[in-house]
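Open question from group meeting: does this chain pack into something compact, or does most of it stay loose? Before anyone orders reagents, we agreed to write out a predicted structure and look at it together. Recording both the input and the output here so the notebook holds the full record.
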Amino acid sequence: MKYVSKFVAGLFVLTVVSVTSVSIHAGVQEAKASEQVEIIAFDTIAENAAVEETTVAETIVEEASIEETVTEETVTEETVPVASSLKNIGQNDEPTAVYGCEVVGFESEAQRAAYVDALSDEYEMIASATVEREWTEEEIAQNYTMEQKSVMISNGKNMGYWLYKPYETDEKMPLVIYLHGKDGCGSNLDRLMNIQGIPQYINEGKIYPNAIVISPQCPSGSSWTKQADAVMELIEAVVAEENIDRSRISLTGASLGGIGTFNIAIKNPTYFSAIVPVCGSVTASKCSVLNDVPVKIYHGTKDTGMGFSVKDAAVVIAENGGNCELNMLEGKGHEIRYVYYDDTYNVLDWMISQQRTDS
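Structure tokens returned:
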């Protein structure tokens, strides 16, 4: 199946996004998890002058417990709650998936219900915002393709994925792998076009990556961490079939995909040229092996449902000589997938620009 660029207005948050960023590099190897880390807000001139201190040693939600809670629930493919109905969600005793947001890790039902209510306001704001996107003549001239494909994995099962190519070329191309959140799980690839994420953003004309992009689909009831070997088999199959530059293979994902991005990279620490976990979580101590791959982390300061283990992870990476940039988005909750198309962040351009020298 092929999708043609629609060159239409995309959904976008009109309000100014306040970004808190912590760049943690090898030069701060002496930092400890219990020490305070500077967080600088880029919102107004006044705020630029103010430096807010925050502790890295906050109560974290361990990846293992989050993984178990997130993957226990099966999201049906038939219905996905819309923004206007979110305030009616969150009244059950079991963790609730809100349009792909894993609402987990709360101490009480009231706390979880309040978080869901806050997410509702955020979704309604996103749904009501529009922005015009002007395409360049070069982009209009390009005839990209989006194609549904699948690969037989060694476990005897097929893994379906979207394959995006910006144009035909004889040159080797970078490869970006995108792992969706829990709202994308299932066996129908069309689902990925109906939820926020890189496939939908490409199809809506919000982004035009200068790289081959694959977006696999995780089976219902599973997780990307459990599918780690299958994902690596898929990547190798695509590399064998397409004209891929092995030195520029990067990995990213949001929510369940953010967890998967961490854990797949931890399992294959010398494989990727860059990783970008978005609104994810991880067992911080495991990140000691991520000292040989550039890491950018994006997380909302109000994403209490996913926890803040990413702060400790950034320190662990730095302590072991790695290069990690932690971007805490001030006032934002779990739904921050817009970082993929918002030019403020240039997530995909940064990923594509990274290159391994030992490939």
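Observations to bring back to the group:
The chain is about 25% helix and 25% strand.
Residues 1-105, 120-133 have pLDDT under 50 and may be disordered.
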